[in-house]
Specification:
By secondary structure, the protein is α/β, with parallel strands linked by helices. The chain is built from 5 helices and 5 strands; from the N terminus they run E-H-E-H-E-H-E-H-H-E. It has a 5-stranded parallel β-sheet with strand order 3-2-1-4-5, with helices on both faces.
Length: about 140
């Protein structure tokens, strides 16, 4: 049923919980795990004047690469094949496009549990992905949500 499962991650505890689920599902179906982290390129110009947007992006990219490599190692330890990607852009846009471009059968991602006014004003990457994705999306709550 599932041959390729996408798990977007930002390294947060909530995303880590989703990674656990994605690894379990991939193991059940002997599926490849695609581990994606998105370097959000919006508003990089608002960093401290002494730091260039390129420096900010490079720092974020290095952190993202570390995060996806750690997840890929966990997947490999579970006997799974894993591929990693770090992409710049708007997170929900990149997740939706990646899932389609790489023929993913399922997206597994964490929620951050925003409620009330904060959710109304900010929305969430997960919520926007669910609304826009043609690929099924499994949402996983964080352990403290």
């Amino acid at each position: 049923m599932y041959e390729r499962i996408l798990v977007p991650t930002d390294g947060s505890d909530c995303a880590d919980n989703a990674v656990d689920h994605a690894i379990d599902i991939a193991a059940q179906y002997d599926a490849e795990l695609c581990v994606l982290s998105v370097v959000d390129t919006r508003d990089m110009s608002h960093s401290a004047p002494a730091i260039s947007p390129q420096q900010v992006e490079q720092t974020l990219r290095e952190r993202a690469e570390s995060v996806v490599e750690a997840v890929a190692e966990r997947a490999t330890d579970a006997g799974l094949e894993a591929v990693t990607a770090v992409e710049p852009g708007v997170p929900d846009d990149v997740v939706v496009e990646y899932a389609i471009d790489h023929d993913c059968d399922l997206v597994v991602m964490g929620t951050h549990g925003r409620t009330g006014l904060e959710r109304y004003l900010l929305g969430s990457v997960t919520e926007r992905t669910v609304r826009r994705s043609s690929v099924p999306v499994l949402t996983v709550r964080g352990t403290d949500d």
